[in-house]
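Might I ask for a little of your time on a matter of protein folding? What I wish to show you is a protein chain and, alongside it, a tokenised description of its three-dimensional fold. I should value your view on which stretches of the chain appear to form regular backbone elements. You will find the record immediately after this paragraph:
***
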Amino acid sequence: MTEDQRQDDPADDVPPDIAAVDMDVDADAPTLEEALQQIAVLDKKLAEATDKMLRALAETENTRRRLERERQDTAKFAVSNFAREMLTVSDNLRRALNAVPAGESEKNEQIKTIYTGVEATERDLLRVFEKNNIKKIDPLNQKFDPNLHEVIFEIPSDRNPGTVLQVVEPGYMIHDRLLRPARVGVAKSNDAPPEGSKIDQQV
């Protein structure tokens, strides 16, 4: 090989140290099978991390929703105990009105004034109840519902068994929750009460 040919050979232009580095890289590089195994391991770890993250997000969302429901329930039913106490006041106002004989308020001016005042008070109280989503349950002539009514006695009747024939005390709901069941007397299927029954004979 002539001097000119040696100068034109590109292999002679590569420094020896760079050539050695290239040889080392090639020697340490993983095989295709090893690379695929490493990718599979990384994919598995990524899937596990993603799953944990999604579970944590779902748990956080569930906790947020539960706390929001509890907050709403607290706002809705915070007055439940107070409202339950006020039901007695409503009952007593109605008893006072029912105690006045029919037509008596028209004959006596003083009784009429008292009756009108008690009636206005009851009306205002019921308006306050309605404003706070407290609704009255008056199931007269309706079918007995164990979720809303409490049977106090049975009445022999030719009406369908379980029909509410008398309301001793009206019930009340607050939002969608029962505040107090209506206390009722219902129609009994038998013509006569069973022996030992304590059915109110005045009904």
Observations:
- The helical segments are 3-8, 16-28, 32-77, 80-98, 104-107, 109-131.
- DSSP finds six helices and six strands in the chain.
- Residues 114 and 126 are 18 Å apart (CA to CA).
- Residues 192-203 have pLDDT under 50 and may be disordered.
